[in-house]
Amino acid sequence: MLNKELVEQNECGNDGKTVNLYFDQMTGVYLAFGLSAYYTTMLVNVFISYSELVGMPVALLRRVHVKMLRQSLQKVEHRQKDFYRFEMDTVIGEAGYERWKEQALEMYGRL
């Protein structure tokens, strides 16, 4: 089961160059939330949705996407297959994040 508090802590403390991925056993996909989702969309073509539980956009990544990230980013932490933390070489920051987040909420939020 995904730990909501861990996701919120990691994304609220995101330093502008970190991508956190969480494995969802039920669906078999990796999830990136908030800033991690934003950064992920700049690196690989993934599906986007909006998590009302955590109040953030979420990117859904298949294993092939994770392999692509592993080739282009520095892996900082890996716990079994349930969590990855990657670091980018440069800080992307939050420049377009708020606009991207609003678009994700509008397109993928409540039905």
Please provide a written account of the structure.
The protein is built from four helices and six strands; from the N terminus they run H-E-E-H-E-E-H-E-E-H. By secondary structure, it is of the alpha+beta class. A six-stranded antiparallel sheet has the order 3-4-2-1-6-5. A hairpin with a 3-residue loop joins strand 5 and strand 6. The mean pLDDT is 88.
Q: Averaging pLDDT over every residue, what do you get?
A: 88
- What is the helix tally? 4
Strand order of the largest sheet: 3-4-2-1-6-5
Instruction: Quickly give the structural class.
Output: alpha+beta
Shape: globular
Largest sheet descriptor:
6 strands, antiparallel
Residue runs with pLDDT of under 50 for 5 or more positions? none
SSE order in H/E notation? Answer: HEEHEEHEEH
Count of extended strands: 6
Beta percentage is 25-35%
Helix amount, in percent?
Answer: 25-40%
Radius of gyration: 13 Å
Give the CA-CA distance, first to last residue: 24 Å
Structure at a glance:
The protein is 37% helix and 31% strand. By secondary structure, it is of the alpha+beta class.
List keywords for this structure.
37% helix, 6 strands, alpha+beta, single chain, 6-stranded antiparallel sheet, 111 residues, 31% strand
